[in-house]
Amino acid sequence: MSTDNEIMRRSRDRPGAFAELFDRHARTIHRYVARRLGAEAADDVMSETFLVAFERRAAFDDSPSALPWLLGIATRLIAKHARLEARAWRGLRAADLGRVEHDQIDRAADRMDAERLAAKVGSALRRLPAGDRDVLLLYAWGDLDYQGVAAALEIPVGTVRSRLNRARRRLRIAIDPGSAREEVDHGRVVPAATDSH
């Protein structure tokens, strides 16, 4: 099986070889974009991601995996669709309420609690700085490790760690603002910080 960088090198002379990279990563890119923007926009953004990657394939840095690079392109394209992303999070509330069926009234309270929690998380995600949100979602939904997120966003690994730590802390505070808990900060246990936002 060829590595991604071998496929990219071949595609520079034989453009049709790029299809193998699409076949390998399209599903992951689509899933990531769908989680960020919703299913309606996922096809377009995924297609645009591969179009941009194809056009810029000569600039690929020969990493063994193209997935971080592709997710970085997708993340930048998602930024163009920020308005759609906010609409998707607002729609999450309505979608969750629509799932409560008449014969499941006994579970309605649980669903309402989950809906409130989803609304809190969605609101907290919208309030995160774009860089923090991108790091968090690439890590959580893109299934990238710190190195992969750093490669996708073209930032140092230390920046990934600090942004991910800050984003996690803000989400925890949004979910449970009154809790005094300890957090783990790169292997050290430290008291939970309060968020000024």
Number of strands: 2
Helix run count: 9
Run of helices and strands = HHHHHHHHHEE
SS strand fraction = under 5%
Question: Average pLDDT across residues?
Answer: 79
| Spatial separation of the terminal alpha carbons | 49 Å
Explained architecture:
The chain has 197 residues and is mainly alpha-helical. 69% of the residues lie in helices and 4% in strands. A hairpin with a 2-residue loop joins strand 1 (182-185) and strand 2 (188-191). Helix 7 packs across helix 9. The longest helix has 20 residues, at 18-37. It starts with a helix and ends in a 6-residue tail after the last strand. Residues 100-106, 179-187 and 193-197 have low confidence and may be disordered.
